[in-house]
Amino acid sequence: MAHDAPQAAGPGKLVIRNIGLLLSGAMEKPILDADMIVAEGGKITAIGRAGDIDASGATTIVDAMGTTLAPGLIDSHVHPVAGDWTPRQNQIGWIDSFLHGGVTTMISAGEVHMPGRPRDVIGLKAMAIFAQRAFWTLRPGGVKVHAGAPVIETEMVEEDFKELAAAGVKLLGEVGLGGVKDGPTARKMVGWARKYGIQSTIHTGGPSIPGSGLIDKDVVLEADTDVIGHINGGHTALPDDQIRCICEGCKRGLELVHNGNERSALYTLRIAREMGDLNRVILGTDSPAGSGVQPLGILRMISLLSSLGEVPAEIAFCFATGNTARMRALDCGLIEVGRSADFVIMDRAQHSPGKTILESVQLGDLPGIGMTIIDGIVRTQRSRNTPPAGRIPEIVGH
Ligand SMILES: [Zn+2]
Fold this sequence. Notes:
By secondary structure, the protein is an alpha/beta fold.
């Protein structure tokens, strides 16, 4: 597998033509009327119809062959450790495998599987800074892993959060996985984190593995994290009435994960729709975990929510792209000029009964991935993990 350093914005010009369906990632307009995208220096510079935009001087030309292009998928909840290895299930290459499932960006909810994870304040701060640095330098397959998410402990003081932020830490790991499990302490520390620009999430529901604990609706609402981490449990979900209370009691992100309770995910989706709050729904896998790693986990969530939750497929794709990008202040996840040129190109899987890719997803099938692109650079061609796509894009010129 490739282990690329972060790509500096280069002089390359990428032209993708003959796009059959362009998914924007934006709930307000999920399908764009365009068949061509141009990216320069790793950023989108033009979106439109061939003939209307300047495609000259391309260093790479991709013919999408009439397939579907979407923003690269974002996994809002992963637990990386170091490099492309996870000790949780002792696997290597799991991040590269997720890239073959269309995931181009991952967000750490804490490097909690680190063997011998330090729980003293100086140790946990050092580990968070190390993880942030290491994953920004090393991008397995090109995947952007936003890591360095410390798990808060009761001995921490405001100065610790200030110091972490100054050192480049931008995320908290799941509140509740460390010593802080009560609402008032969590609220105080989440407030300190927010004051210094650090985003927060929380472990919602029953214990995930021996050693973790229950976090119920009262703690979740009092802690007031930016994202309600796995509101459908990881894996044990809260009772439905508590899930409803959380959805109605705040305006924070509602994160649905693959390693959670699927029925509770569909219940949360239904409440969010009733409230007109589908823009709060974001997706993660919560992996690696006890139930393994899921390279196709985000695609499977899109298909689950679209088919059983009766959400149009183009909207379900927004849960894993634009919604997360906006909530997490990322520069990817939407097909807009100026955003990162991070794309997944897909088609209806071979022999799916759906007539189009969107219909196939609404019927519960997964799409086939034909190409991934990060920072305007082609990273993978036909996926080794998805069902084979009917048509696949081709690189037709350099
Ligand atoms: Zn959790």
